[in-house]
């Protein structure tokens, strides 16, 4: 079973790229982030015609997450990260697909740091830690994936010395990611590729993609037991080189889990 996560950076602006990638790669489940579209502007017809069922949590201009499943039923479980009833940003959605508990997230960027946006990011991370603990306690097979906006280690960024003051790389942010791993979650990419230079995001500026001056900020975390079913994991970096593409590339895993 192939599961992918992809920050599309505007689902309507990138729809041709998304549809081309879905046709070529045909993942069974897809988590999308940064839709940048309210519910009424989601291109549901095009996604359906591509063979995917979908649930969405859109938002005008910013944010937005979705879970797509190819010829599989999606049971929506929740569409808000618990812990702040006043948080109106569309950054989280959970569903059950083919016996797996799928959590799709778009974690706040947090820049500039320090500041209110960074404070929001840290509060969001505390909420995520609590939810992640609940998910582990459930003993469900859980995939926690999406754009974390966290660079976990120096091995996950081109020239880390340039990022020391950035909200994606600050010690307190990286510490939370480390805590998630210590609590039992497995970073799928690093399980199979522990030291390889792997990026998932390349800025549009300064010819970053051609220079491979990237970051690894899109992650797959697997609950205990599910990591034993992990067969392959990678990044479709070539998609980042397509015309009018997102600044992120799709990240994917293959699990020994029958459809």
From TrEMBL:
GO molecular function terms noted in the UniProt entry: DNA binding; double-stranded DNA 3'-5' DNA exonuclease activity; endonuclease activity; metal ion binding
Similarity-based family: Belongs to the DNA repair enzymes AP/ExoA family.
Site for Interaction with DNA substrate, residues: 248
Active site: 106, 147 (proton donor/acceptor), 248 (proton acceptor)
Cofactor binding note of this UniProt entry: Probably binds two magnesium or manganese ions per subunit.
Occurrences of domain Endonuclease/exonuclease/phosphatase (ranges): 4-248
CDD domains, per the entry: ExoIII-like_AP-endo
Gene Ontology BP annotations: DNA repair
Annotated site residues (Transition state stabilizer) in this chain: 149
One Pfam family named in its UniProt record: Exo_endo_phos
Site note Important for catalytic activity, residues: 218
Binding of Mg(2+), residues: 7, 34, 147, 149, 247-248
Cofactor(s) listed: Mg(2+); Mn(2+)
Taxonomic classification: Bacteria, Pseudomonadati, Bacteroidota, Flavobacteriia, Flavobacteriales
Protein name according to UniProt: Exodeoxyribonuclease-3
Tree of life domain: Bacteria
Keywords in alphabetical order: Hydrolase, Magnesium, Manganese, Metal-binding
């Amino acid at each position: 079973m192939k599961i992918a996560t992809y920050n599309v950076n505007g689902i309507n602006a990138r729809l041709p790229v998304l549809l081309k990638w879905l046709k070529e790669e045909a993942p069974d489940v897809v988590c999308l982030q940064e839709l940048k579209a309210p519910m009424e502007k989601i291109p549901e017809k095009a996604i359906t015609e591509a063979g995917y069922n979908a649930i969405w949590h859109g938002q005008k201009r910013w944010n937005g997450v979705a879970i797509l499943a190819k010829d599989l039923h999606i049971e929506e479980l929740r569409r808000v990260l618990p812990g702040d009833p006043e948080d109106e940003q569309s950054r989280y959605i959970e569903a059950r697909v083919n016996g797996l508990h799928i959590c799709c997230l778009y974690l706040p960027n947090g820049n500039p740091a320090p500041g209110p946006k960074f404070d929001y990011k840290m509060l969001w991370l505390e909420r995520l830690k609590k939810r992640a603990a609940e998910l582990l306690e459930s003993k469900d097979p859980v995939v926690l994936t999406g754009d974390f906006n966290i660079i976990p280690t120096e091995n996950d960024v081109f020239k880390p010395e340039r990022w020391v003051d950035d909200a994606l790389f600050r010690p307190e942010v990286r510490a939370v990611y480390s805590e998630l791993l210590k609590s039992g979650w497995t970073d799928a990419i690093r399980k199979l590729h522990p030291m390889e230079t792997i990026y998932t995001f390349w800025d549009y500026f300064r010819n970053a993609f051609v220079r491979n001056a990237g970051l690894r900020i899109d992650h797959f975390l697997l609950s205990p037991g599910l990591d034993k079913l992990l067969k392959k994991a990678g990044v479709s970096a070539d998609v980042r080189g397509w015309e009018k593409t997102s600044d992120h590339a799709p990240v994917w895993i293959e699990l020994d889990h029958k459809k």
